[in-house]
Structures are given as C-alpha cells and as structure tokens.
Design a protein that fits this description.
This protein has helices at residues 2-8, 11-42. It is mainly α and 51 residues long.
Length: 51
C-alpha cells in the first residue's frame, strides 16, 4: 500500500491528479448548487429573487 502512495506522489502523476480533483470538486459544487435551487423551487421560493 505504501508503494501505491509513493507512486501517486510522483510529479508525473500529480500533474494529472490535481486537474482531475479540481474538475470533480467543481462538479460536486455545481450539483449541490443545483440541488439547493431545486429545493427552493419545491418550497415555493423564487431562487432568482435577490434578498
């Protein structure tokens, strides 16, 4: 298992892992934002109305 992590920490691998992690986190953020918007609509709140 330690060998696996040492291979992941190689610069040749990290250069691909960082963008993939960023895309994954960005997608998660978009999904959560969409879920919140849909819940507001279900509860009768206008999600576009500014407070």
């Amino acid at each position: 298992m330690g060998d696996f992590f040492s291979k992941l920490l190689q610069p040749e691998v990290i250069v691909f892992l960082i963008p993939l992690a960023a895309i994954g986190l960005g997608g998660l953020r978009m999904w959560l934002s969409h879920q919140e918007r849909m819940e507001k609509i279900r509860n009768g709140i206008d999600p576009d109305k500014k407070a």
